C-alpha cells in the first residue's frame, strides 16, 4: 500500500484545435489570407472583464491576414491628431503616445514569437468589412496577432449594433510600430482600451524552466519521518542522500536523458525482485490491456525483469521515441502544482530511491518500484500521455482551488483509475497506485456478487469499494484517504473515454489563459499577456510579464 503526504502526487494542447465553422456577424467574414493557416482556428474562451463566453480566433504564429492591394494606397484618414491618450478598463490614463513614428515599414522583423504582449479592447460597428479595415493595420505595422475574441455589445439605445473585440498581439506601448498601430486603430474604433496584464501563479514557459521547480521538494529525499521503516538506518539515509544529490544536480536541457547510471546494491535489487514477484501474477488478471502491451515492450527494450532495476535514462530515451514523454529525476516529493506543471511538458518527475528492505511490500512514499512498475508502462501509451498532459496544461497558472481539483482528478485516475476490460464487464486498473500494489490491485478489481456487503471490516479496511463512473467534475470534489485503500474508485469506459472527459472538464475550468504546447520548441505558448507574479522560484527574483 502506498502512502503520500499532503502532496497529491502527481499539443499545441495535445490536440489540434478543431476546424469549425460558426455563424458569425457579417463583419467576421474577413478576406481569406493567402496563407492557409491564417485565421483558421476557432474556439471559445473566457472574457477578460466578466467571464462571458465569446468567439475566439487563433492565428498562426506568423500568419497575419495580408492582401496584396494593401501595399500602398489610402490606409485610413481623419482621426484625433498626433497625440493619443490610452486608458485601461478602469478609465485610468495608461500612456501618452507620440505619433511621430507613424512611418513604420511592415518589413521590420521586430515581432518575436515570444516576448512582451499587449491586449486591447476595441468596439466596432457591425458592418461588412469593419474587421478587415482594422486587421490591415496589423499587417502594415508588422504586428503579430496571437488571439482575437468577439462578443456583441448590449445595445439598449436602438443605434447600430456593435461588437467588442479583444485582441492580443506581440509588442508593447512605446515601440514605434505599436504606437503607430494604436493611432491608426483609434480612427476606426468607437472605443479603444489597453487591458491590464493578468497576474497569475508562476509557471514554466520552456522545458528548461522545470529546473526551477524540480528542486522545490517538500522533503529532500532524506528527511524521513519517524515512522518511516528506514528512519533509524544510517546507511539507508546516506544512500538516499547520494541519490538526491544526483537529482538536484540534473539540468533538463543540458543533460537531457544523460542521467548518471545508478548502481543499485544487491539488497536493493532483492527488494525490487520481491515486489516484482508479488504483483507480476496479478497484472495479467487485473491490469488494462494497454499496460500489458506496454510492459512487454519495456521488457524487450528497457531490460525490465525481476533481477535488474532498469535505468531511468534508458527508459526516458525509449519513452521519447514512443510518445514524446520523458522522465526527469527528482530528489523527493514536490508540490501538486509543480508536479502537474511538469506534465504539461510531457515530463514525469521520477524518484530513484527504493523502499526500505525491512518492509518490501510497503512504502510510505513513491519510490522507484512505484514509478517504474506503476507509472512508466502507462507512459508508453499515447492516449494516456495525452490524458496526463491535459491535466498538466490546465494546471499552468491555475488558482490554488483549481490545482486542488486537478490534483484530485489526477489521484482518482492516474494514480487509482479503473477502466472496463475488453469484455465490457470486468474492471481493469490503469492507475499506478493500483498496478504497483498487490493488495489494492486485487481489492479494487476483483469481481464481487451483489450480496457482498459494504462497510468496514475488523481490520479497519473497507469490505468493498464504491465504483463510480469516471466524471472529472465528481472526482474533483471527491476527497480520499492516503493511508488506507481507497473507498471510492472511478471507472472509465476506456482510456480514450477518460482522456476526452478530462479534456472537456479542463476546457470548462475558468482558466486565466489557454496554453498550447509546441513539441518542437518544447515551449508553452499562451493566448494573452500575463504576469507570473505569485509563487516565483527563489532564483527568479521579481515577477515577469509574458
Counting H and I runs of at least 4 residues, what is the number of helices?
A: 16
Output the structural class.
alpha+beta
Q: Extract low-pLDDT stretches.
A: 1-113
General form: globular
State Rg.
27 Å
Please, what is the average pLDDT? 78
Sheet of most strands: 6 strands, antiparallel
End-to-end distance, in Å?
43 Å
| Percentage of residues in helical conformation | 25-40%
Extended strand count = 19
Lateral arrangement of strands in the main beta sheet: 1-2-6-7-5-8
What's the multimeric state? single chain
In terms of DSSP E residues, the strand content is: 15-25%
Structural write-up:
The structure is a single chain. With 546 residues, the chain is α+β, with helices and mostly antiparallel strands. It contains 16 helices and 19 strands. It has helices at 130-140, 176-188, 211-214, 234-248, 252-255, 266-286, 289-301, 312-323, 336-344, 368-375, 382-395, 400-415, 432-435, 438-445, 472-475, 495-508; strands at 41-46, 53-58, 83-87, 93-98, 117-125, 145-152, 162-170, 191-194, 198-201, 326-329, 347-350, 418-420, 427-429, 466-469, 488-492, 515-518, 523-526, 530-534, 544-545. Strands 1-2-6-7-5-8 form a six-stranded antiparallel β-sheet, with helices on one face. A four-stranded mixed β-sheet has the order 13-12-15-14. Strand 1 and strand 2 form a beta hairpin. Helix 6 runs parallel beside helix 14 (438-445). The longest helix has 21 residues, at 266-286. It starts with 40 loop residues before the first strand and ends with a strand. The model is unreliable at 1-113 (pLDDT under 50).
Amino acid at each position: 500500500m502506498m502512502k503520500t503526504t499532503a502532496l497529491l502526487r502527481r499539443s499545441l494542447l495535445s490536440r489540434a484545435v478543431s476546424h469549425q465553422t460558426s455563424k458569425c456577424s457579417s463583419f467576421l467574414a474577413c478576406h481569406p489570407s493567402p496563407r492557409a493557416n491564417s485565421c483558421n482556428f476557432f474556439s471559445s474562451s473566457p472574457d477578460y472583464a466578466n467571464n462571458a463566453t465569446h468567439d475566439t480566433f487563433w492565428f498562426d504564429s506568423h500568419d497575419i491576414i495580408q492582401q496584396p492591394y494593401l501595399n500602398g494606397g489610402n490606409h485610413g484618414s481623419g482621426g484625433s491628431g498626433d497625440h493619443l491618450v490610452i486608458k485601461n478598463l478602469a478609465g485610468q490614463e495608461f500612456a501618452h503616445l507620440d505619433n511621430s513614428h507613424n512611418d513604420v515599414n511592415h518589413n521590420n522583423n521586430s515581432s518575436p514569437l515570444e516576448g512582451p504582449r499587449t491586449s486591447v479592447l476595441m468596439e466596432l460597428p457591425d458592418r461588412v468589412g469593419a474587421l478587415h479595415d482594422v486587421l490591415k493595420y496589423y499587417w502594415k505595422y508588422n504586428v503579430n496577432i496571437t488571439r482575437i475574441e468577439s462578443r456583441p455589445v448590449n445595445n439598449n439605445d436602438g443605434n447600430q449594433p456593435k461588437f467588442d473585440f479583444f485582441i492580443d498581439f506581440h509588442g508593447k506601448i512605446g515601440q514605434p510600430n505599436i504606437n503607430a498601430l494604436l493611432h491608426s486603430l483609434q480612427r476606426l474604433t468607437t472605443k479603444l482600451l489597453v487591458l491590464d496584464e493578468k497576474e497569475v501563479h508562476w509557471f514554466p514557459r520552456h522545458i528548461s524552466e522545470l529546473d526551477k521547480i524540480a528542486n522545490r521538494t517538500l522533503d529532500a529525499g532524506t528527511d524521513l519521518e519517524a515512522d518511516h521503516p528506514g528512519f533509524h538506518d544510517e546507511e539507508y539515509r546516506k544512500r538516499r542522500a547520494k541519490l538526491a544529490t544526483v537529482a538536484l544536480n540534473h539540468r533538463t536541457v543540458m543533460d537531457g536523458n544523460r542521467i548518471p547510471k545508478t548502481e543499485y546494491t544487491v539488497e536493493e535489487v532483492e527488494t525490487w525482485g520481491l515486489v516484482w514477484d508479488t504483483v507480476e501474477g496479478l497484472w495479467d488478471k487485473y491490469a488494462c490491456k494497454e499496460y500489458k502491451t506496454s510492459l512487454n515492450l519495456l521488457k524487450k527494450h528497457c531490460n525490465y525483469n525481476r533481477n535488474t532495476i532498469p535505468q531511468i535514462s534508458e527508459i526516458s530515451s525509449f519513452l521519447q521515441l514512443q510518445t514524446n514523454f520523458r522522465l526527469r529525476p527528482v530528489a523527493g516529493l514536490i508540490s501538486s502544482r509543480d508536479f502537474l506543471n511538469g506534465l504539461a511538458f510531457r515530463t514525469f518527475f521520477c524518484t530513484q530511491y527504493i523502499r526500505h528492505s525491512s518492509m518490501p511490500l510497503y512504502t510510505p512514499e513513491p519510490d522507484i518500484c512505484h514509478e517504474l512498475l506503476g507509472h512508466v508502462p502507462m507512459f508508453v501509451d499515447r492516449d494516456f500521455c495525452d490524458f496526463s498532459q491535459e491535466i498538466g496544461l490546465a494546471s499552468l497558472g491555475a488558482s490554488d482551488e483549481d490545482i486542488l481539483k486537478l490534483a484530485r482528478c489526477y489521484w482518482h485516475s492516474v494514480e487509482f483509475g479503473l477502466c472496463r476490460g475488453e469484455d465490457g464487464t470486468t474492471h481493469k486498473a490503469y492507475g499506478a497506485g493500483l498496478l504497483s500494489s498487490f493488495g489494492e490491485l486485487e481489492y479494487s478489481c476483483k469481481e464481487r456478487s451483489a450480496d457482498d456487503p459494504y462497510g468496514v471490516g475488523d481490520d479497519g479496511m473497507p469490505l468493498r469499494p464504491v465504483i463510480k463512473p469516471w466524471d472529472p467534475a465528481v472526482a474533483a470534489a471527491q476527497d480520499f484517504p492516503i493511508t488506507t485503500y481507497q473507498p471510492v474508485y472511478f471507472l472509465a469506459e476506456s482510456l480514450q473515454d477518460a482522456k476526452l472527459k478530462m479534456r472537456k472538464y479542463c476546457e470548462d475550468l475558468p482558466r486565466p489563459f489557454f496554453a498550447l504546447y509546441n513539441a518542437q520548441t518544447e515551449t508553452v505558448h499562451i493566448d494573452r499577456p500575463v504576469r507570473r507574479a505569485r509563487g516565483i522560484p527563489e532564483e527568479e527574483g521579481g515577477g515577469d510579464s509574458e
